[in-house]
Please model this.
Amino acid sequence: MTNEPDSASNHEPSRAAQAIGRRIKELRTQQQLSLSELAERAGVSKSYLSTVESGTGRRPGVAVLHKVAVALGVTLADLLERTIKAAPTTDIPDSLRTFAEERDLPEADVQMLAGIKFRGEAPRTKDNWQFIYNAIVMSVVTERTKE
Model:
């Protein structure tokens, strides 16, 4: 047995941060936005956004990813290069609608969440929707780093 940490787990967050950074930079340049413009739109500092794009810092959290996605006019699924398919529904629970409005979620994300059931029932509170949304985002980020 060795005292060295598991190298695979040490490199995983770095790969995730790099992949996310590359995607943000790709979307930003496609839209012909400067680093300063995107940082201002997203409400983050230019230096922090530069660190995110370079993949040299910690993997950004869900709140930052959401701000950047909104600033770029894309869904979190688009930002993370994931396809999330859900049957369109018009039955959006009030607690989900409230959560979505507070977080300024794209309609595609709201529709995706509306199709989720746990033990046969949809979540009932904003906090439950928040938990599920964060879990989905983090599972997508983790899955992407395995590719």
Notes: Residues 36 and 46 are 6 Å apart (CA to CA). Residues 7-30 form the longest helix (24 residues).
